[in-house]
Known about the structure:
Distance between the termini: 41 Å
CATH architecture: 3-Layer(aba) Sandwich
Strand order of the largest sheet: 3-2-1-4-5-6-7
Helix content: 40-55%
Order of helices and strands: HEHEHEHEHHEHEHHHE
Structural class: alpha/beta
Largest sheet: 7 strands, parallel
Number of helices: 10
Strand content: 5-15%
Amino acid sequence: MDRKDTTMMDPAALFSLEGKTALVTGGAQGLGRMIAEGLIAAGAKVYITSRKADICEAAAAEMGAHALPGEAGSAAGVEDIAARFAAAEDRLHILVNNAGKTWGAPIDEFPDHAWSSVMEVNVQSPFKMVQQLLPQLTAAGAPGDPARVVNIGSIAGRATTTVQAYSYAASKAAIHMLSRQLARDLIDRNISVNALLPGFFPTKMSAHLSADPANAKGLVPIGRFGTPEDIAGAVIFLSSRAGAYITGAELQLDGGLIGCA
């Protein structure tokens, strides 16, 4: 087609989330809050979850989000959150499964209970959230503009580390594969599913590293830790018209940790 006959796309419209409704689990703090704030800035109506009602409500008020306090890491908690969301909204355009749990200990001390609890929060609960909200996701999806599920994985599910967080690493590898299977199974319902694999970001989980920016020089090829703009931008991309042709993907957001190894 001749260039002069082509209508140029509006870059702002490509990344706009105006008219979209989103739910971010664990959205009151850390990566979840960075993501929620980004979605709001892009125009979405955002609900956030957090186990502690006071923290959830305070964060929602500060961001201009809607609070859905509850336990997004258990089957019963997910059912409760999904029921309250369904009572408020009949469509869900964007679901970000961000709530997570980790556990680190030397191999000869690693406890049995660190497996079931971590796998429940990091794998079973995201699956349960998708399952419970299928009616709202299906209602929101359309050909060319699917509903989006973004599961927050980790580079720990793709590469070995010195942290010795055995159940966490296994759970993140599992959520990556689960995302691919869900993408295959839900494509006919106009629902896309992708996994986002963050590296080092300034959160409570990585506070021992990110407290000193100099640590990034020896850890991250790009020479810095991730910023709120980095993760918010990636989720906005996957959730907007710009990412409508992507499903079953694993997007590494790690400053080159995996790709440059």
